[in-house]
Amino acid sequence: MATALKDMEPAIDLLDVSRAELYRDDTWHEPFRRLRAEAPVRYTPQSDFGPYWSVSSYKPLVEVESLPEIFSSEAGGITLADFDPTKHDVRMPMFIARDRPVHTAQRRTVAPAFTPSEMVRMTDDIRRRTGEVLDSVPLNSRVDWVDLVSIELTTQMLAILFDFPWEDRRKLTFWSDWAGDIELVKNEELRLQRLQHMFECGAYFQNLWNQKIDKPQTPDLISMMIHSDAMAHMDQYEFIGNLILLIVGGNDTTRNSMSALAYGLDQFPAERAKLEADPALIPNTVQEIIRWQTPLSHMRRTATQDYELMGQQIRQGDKLALWYVSANRDESVFGADADEIKVDRPNARRHLAFGHGIHRCVGARLAELQIGILLEEMAKRRLRVNVLEEPTRVAACFVHGYRKMAVEVTRY
To answer: What family is this (predicted)?
Structure first.
């Protein structure tokens, strides 16, 4: 009987790359390698997130991203997890999940926080805070790099961007972790907890918003929203949605790249030695680390009309997962060694970790600046991060990152 029941169980689709365990166990490389070689645009009829198309190689992904009217961010959202009003879901619009013209107007509101002049203005402060964090890390001792360095630096930056109370800044990390975990949709209790935390986030920020109304504009994101036609009159749900976007976008992505530079350079000691010998390689290494890690595995698009993509017939209403994590390992673009870190890779900047087209990450310059300064300050102190054991990874197909990473920091 046991054998008969086992035979009745549906077989696991090994090319369903939405399975959380692939990212928890860091075993996603092989199925994506097969997809790129055999079916770069492939239909998955059944998954925990329903049917979807996987777009796993560079060329078709760029094609989809270049056609935002045909492949909508707004029609179904930006993750494989569907909105379900029957399960207490509340739609919280955010500009990354809006189409033109709303997307354009709202993006334009926050973009001034990330201009080249703003990067110059913030550089000294980022460098000072990075140095202080590194100097607080005990040498030759077991520490958690994710918590001590990656989370702390990115949470500090978020607090500054929002003019957020310094003593409460770790709330931003807490909210980011709940907001970015799409696996929670599979559990009703956790889904409701997530909703509660998002409303708590909204209430906290509403208080900050109220304190800035009728005040002169300041460089922080909340003040920018208040003083813009596009975002001054958002309802409660759109307000929370855009906050979540800016928190997750500013926290999870940079923080997981900062963790990846510790883990990745430890995995490729010859490349680490090359970087330690020549700090002029740091700007290119920043791009290579972001490519190699790809801190958001996918974005979702929904077809607004029928469309043929690499010989596959996409139907109106179909859901597509754009697997940046795979396109950034595309051998046809980055070479046969795409799974490796090469600090002098000549085309590292071609990565798609920030997306492509109208939805390209608005904070990309700031992420690059923070990661670059971290590498520069480590080089100045001759610090080397030695990973002591395999890290605990995020078990999800959206945020691609690390929960904990035991390391020992030494000097070289």
So the answer is: Belongs to the cytochrome P450 family.
